[in-house]
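From the pipeline queue, job 12 of 40. The input is one protein chain; the requested action is below.

Action: predict structure.
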Amino acid sequence: MRWRPATLRGRLTLWYTIVIGVPFLVFELVGYLLFASALRGGTERFVDDALAAFTRELQAERFVRGDALETIRSTVREVHFKDLRIEVRDAAGALVAASEDAPPGPGAREGTRTVTLAGATFQVRGLYPRAEEEAVLVRIRGAFLLAVPVLLGLAATGGLLIARRGLRPVAAMGARAAEISASTLHERLPVGGGAELQGLATVVNALLDRLQASFERQRRFMADASHELRTPTAIVRAEAEVTLARPHRDEAEYRAALQVMHDASLRLTRIVEDLFLLVRADAGQLPMRRGPLYLEESVHDAALGVRHLAARRGVTVAVTSLVQAPLTGDGDLLGRVLLNLLDNAIKYAPAGSTVEVAMAAAPGPRCVVSVTDHGPGVPVEAQGRIFDRFVRAEASRGASAGDGPGGAGLGLAIARRIAELHGGTLELARSEPGHTEFRLVLPVDETTDG
């Protein structure tokens, strides 16, 4: 298993050291090899130049003295080069003359030249010891070996300082994030430390914004749910206490009390069921029995299902247009959406008016179902929150406003969530006095015949 530092700071320091150290080591190695080659070349040139000078001097002495052997011996005695041993041998290899320098050790730099004197051929050989050359290379190697740990140490220190400086904003963000809790969700991470960390801080702060909004919605939801549940339970309790306060009551009084408690329990049951449905939908655990269906049939059935309710309120429900809209979905849940829209429209429509239901095909392919009533409309300040949970526009939509009998302002929230689970949308398309239109848009199969 490969070892690597456990912290990001350690990994950055290691990488910085490697990035600085490896090129330096390569530079040192190449520099040393080049220097050694240059030093060796210089020695070889010195030997070659010395032999050339000695040969010239030897030939010049030849013309003066005339005797070849004497010329060689006298030239060897008179001409000296520092640390260079010169040997002159005849054609048979016998030593004729040699300088007084001690023979160098093994591996000496060697050069040879051939010279002809008085018709005889002689070999001039130069030997130069490598001791001085090796001493220079040893000093160079020592300097390089000393520089390696020093430079690596400096690189590691610099990498650590750079990593610490670069990660300081991360540490600050981590410390601030550790302090944020459910009660301090309004706090945000500091934005700084370069574009990358600024982007990270911005993303995390956006996440905190969403979490804060979610917590606030949850708190409002719990408060509203508690309020809505408190009302029917208080009614049941108060009615029971009043009924039990008198030891004797007639049957009509008991029936009236039981009817009040029955209605309150129905409202309580509906609120609990709606809350349970919303919680399961939010958690992605809402059971959906998907299957092929025709949306126009669901629209037709929903319109028929509310005809008696509409008749009691003196309202007419008219399906003005239908289009073929095959899709795959849960017919019961989509029917609930349509019934909720129709129930609200009938509830707020004035007596003698008509609630209009229309279908239309749209690109995508999609199908648009619009439900329109001619009631008072949703007030402007409430339109942005009409799909929030426990939101009702009773003051502007009539005295009987609400989610229906026993409603708690959950119907539209549930309807929109069901539409979203089917890949569609539910929106308030238009609302003003005398005209309110809700629009349900759902994706349909490619075979839609519009």
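Job complete. The radius of gyration is 51 Å.
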